[in-house]
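PT: before anyone asks, these are the final sequences, not the draft ones from last week. 1242 residues across everything. Please model them as a single complex and drop the result in this thread when it's through.
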Amino acid sequence: MLKSKTFVKKTRSGGVMKVVREHYLRDDIWCGSEICTECKQDSTVLQRDACIESNLCTFPHYLVPDTNVVLHQIDVLEDPVICNVIILQTVLQEVRHRSAPVYKRLKDIIHEQGRHFYTFTNEHHRETFIEREPGESANDRNDRAIRVAVKWYSQHLKTDESGPDGVRVVLLTNDQGNKQKAEDNGLLVYRFEEYIKSLIANTELVDRLALSNEDKNEIASSKILFPEHLPLSKIQAGIKSGSFIQGTFRASRDNYLEATVFVQGEGEDSNEVLIQGLQNLNRAVHQDVVAVQLLPKNQWVAPSSVVLQDEGAAKDDDVDGDEEEKLLKQSLTKSTRKATGKVVGIIKRSWRPFCGMLNVSQIKESTRHLFTPADRRIPRIRIETRQASTLAGQRIMVAIDGWPKDSRYPNGHFVRSLGNAGEKDTEEEVLLLEHDVPHQAFSQAVLSFLPKMPWIITPEDMAQRQDLRHLTVCSVDPPGCTDIDDALHCRELENGNLEVGVHIADVSHFIRPGNALDKEAANRGTTVYLCGKRIDMVPELLSSNLCSLRSNVERFAFSCIWEMNHNAEILKTRFTKSVINSKASLTYAEAQMRIDDTNKNDDITKSLRGLNKLAKILKRKRIENGALTLSSLEVRFHIDSETHDPIDLQTKELKETNSMVEEFMLLANISVAQKIYDEFPECALLRKHPAPPPSNYDILMKAAKSKNVTIHVDSAKALADSLDGAKVDGFQYFNTLLRILATRCMMQAVYFCSGMDSDFHHYGLASPIYTHFTSPIRRYADIIVHRLLAVAIGADSTYPDLMDKHKQSALCNNLNYRHKMSQYAQRASVAFHTQLFFKTRGILNEEGFVLFVRKNAIIVLIPKFGLEGTVFFDSKDKASPKLVFDEEGPTLKVEQHTFNIFDKVKVTISLDDSNIQHQKIRMALIEPVIPGVSVPVPEAEPQAKKQKLDR
Amino acid sequence: MATAQVSEAEKVYILHGIRDDLRVDGRGCEDYRHMEVETDVVSNTDGSAKVTLGHTAVLVGVKAEIGKPRPMIPDEGYLEFFVDCSANATPEFEGRGGEELGTELSNTLYKVFNNQHSLDLRSLCISPGEHCWVLYVDVLLLQCDGNLYDAISVAIKAALFNTKIPKVHISSDDEGGKEIELSDDPYDCMRLDVENVPCMVTLCKIGHRHVVDVTLQEKACSVASLVISVTHKGVITCTRKVGRGSLDPESICEMTEAGKRVGKALHSPLMKLLQQEESLGKKRQKVGFLG
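LR: through. Structure below.
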């Protein structure tokens, strides 16, 4: 049966368009229930004995939530207790329209087979489709559609032989009007809260309920604290006319009464607007997109340098933060005033569940508590829970439900507990959540696209690929590596030239564009390596088995094969999909040993020696071209195999073989970049590293000057040369320190789409073009590059998104974001493990170097641990010593002693765990001895023992 | 214009018949052929109607779009006409064959309908000088069997009656910027008052008499005809002479009087029919093009 749906919509140009869609109704949509005998369905989702222990519904029942219940209470619906739920198409569509994240979560639940969630396409069912009636709003129509569907279900299921004990259908809604109408229609209907509270076996679910509007009213006092937010239409009009500015709200880390709004301008022209005071911040939360109105110029203020944290017990709503605001005003100096504004409305909230800890209320019986998020930029959140005593001391997640204008704090609800604070697993989880690293197990939908095991190579596969199994290919990786992306070979050809091959795991063969697996990988963007843990981008079957180029198994590869002469000049380049059989998986050390061992003369060793020889030439050439060799200290933890606690840490050392592999990877990346750019100038995915602005080098030049060394920064080549020449007698570590400093001056390398940019240069590698091709198992960018290259050589077909530069550009943005976050997560993980390490060590004394000099502190690098820490010279409880800061040096004079960059110092290192959420490493000065500032040398050993006894 | 080949003998037969108030198909001189009207036949227009008159069939669609008012009359909306002489109607229209007729018809339609007297154009104004509704009236000739003007005018009146214009309101901010906002209820729409919309009556001079609603054969016997647009009150809003021959003042007077009479009689059953159809609402059995 055909119906047409008609609606009018506004076009972009301001016109009005009438749209007519055809809508087909069918009579072959089945109910999905096991007990139904009428529907001719192949498989059923809803169970016969659908029992959730509830004292409201003692009979088997199916649940039908309405849209608002799904939107607000998804945290509860995600709990495995809730099963046998009918999700109506009306609800699904509305959820999708209103909130993409909730929609995705709902879809994930529906895909989970154990949950028995059934999607009923009521909008296409002949008996449940309804048309909107005159005078009926869209919402009312949807509510009616839901009621009609529930009615249909209850009648449909009743007709079966099951009798009065049969399955009933329960509508869950929080809408009073809807509930009333449903009751009038004779439906079984409950408020969501009512139903959840009736689940006697699972009382903890009650805490996860989001506050509904009525509950919110109870909490808040009557006094209005914040100005009303403007409606969206007014905001849009205001932005159009220029009276408001749209920007991203960024709360200050140090001062809860201050924030900046970052306004994205045309091109480079971006600026910031300062927001100060609770009223002006007007309930905006970090990362929200807000509309700001600038204050008149005479009300502009300067950013305060005061550190303010919202601490202590919950403030009453009527006692405002007046005193603290006064504190702000004092720091006002006229010269440094900045554009200041106030938030008039929220365009888009970017609320996510936040990690943090509970501040248990002082009143014992109280169920309302404040929650302090780990991220200082997020305000404290008021939640309601009955399990405060168990949650105290745990890391928990809380979601914000809303922030009424008469409440000092936003209201939220408890989502889940992550575990005890300070425990390794808990902290790791917090770290991943706070860095927005997707780390859930792969969903069923994703896993369904994995190849079926046992996986075999078919003759068709062989026909499409070059057989390179006879070559002596081997891989060289760090120890313990299971996701082997790359393998190499080198052999002499009959004409005396050398053939070098780089073989990269053919991940794009397994991950086809557009399926759930591909989408998940694109979203994750990169594999995240934490200390002792890996968060895979693709499921383990691929990353550690089918794609990993392990030795002595046949694997698919994408090969880049060069013919070179003995001077490492490329004569021919060839790309092909292939099948290889790696002869050995070596570690860097093993490979090095083989090369050095003159007795060994097997094929693998010969191949390695050839590669090593060529790599040295390639490296020399690259450095002559002005590539930079920078340095940063990477730390490796020795992890106790049982407790998984770090027992020792050492900085990673680099062997010749490291650079050998690296050299060929660079070469492959450059060759591929050139090829895909030649083939697709508009949509090649490349990687660039912009040259830093000269001012970035100021600190490096000043630092070098203090040791009478001049650094030239006019070009990468000049910089590389002067870094090579920079040596100070008797100070071996100087060069490394300089390189560490130089690294800090650099810009971030980014992915981009060639059609959207004109500057391709890679500054650090001194290459005019570059991309990532060699690690498709752990980076999504490489998968796209593989696809582009496969299309370029005719080995695979293309698809529309691959050639759409705007889509690619959006993808690049996500990859850059994920990449950045994964690096932060990695750093945070190292920092956490360092803390764990020092926790058991007590207090240590170590030698270090001054890396930076600040106004009131020096930053010290301990080379032994690759650890950086700050030595403060002023503290809250002590009168600070006389400090003179000279920006030119930069030097800091503390009492009599002057600190320069690169000065050697001795410090004590200990763990400061006074704030359980923000543990940190504390350093204190021992040498040089400054009276009143430095601390005496502690007796490290006994201290440590005592610590151990305590635990 | 579509024509039919008629022999001398046939002409004489027709002429003599009309002289005796007896036409070939049995009608009197002031009788119309069987007429069928159906509205709301094209779902993606804002209003539409299909009219068949004997074998003549026309389809009219009205699309409402937001435009800028004419500078001279800033507080009125306006209508735009386009007549498509599809080659389906007659092979003569193939290629650009129907263009001339289409222009001629649409020029007449502008004169008859696009004025404040036939339609309240002020109601089409959204904000004076800035936005108004423009009604695009598209006429499609499906089949030609004479008397196009009358059929088209009835179809236009029916289509305008059927037209539902979405309600909009203007929101303005302090800066004077205006934004058009659309009601989200598809049933919330504006209807046009078509009471004063005239119908056109074509009178053909055949011999010494004149007839309405000529077939193609009858038309071949006539040298001149008069198109008169008449409102429901019998007011003549426009007259136009079509054809090569000449008309003497006396017969013009006679023909106008007859046109008035016929036109007035045409309106009330039409309005009754349209209202009846409307009142059926969704229960109405649609006939469409295949019925």
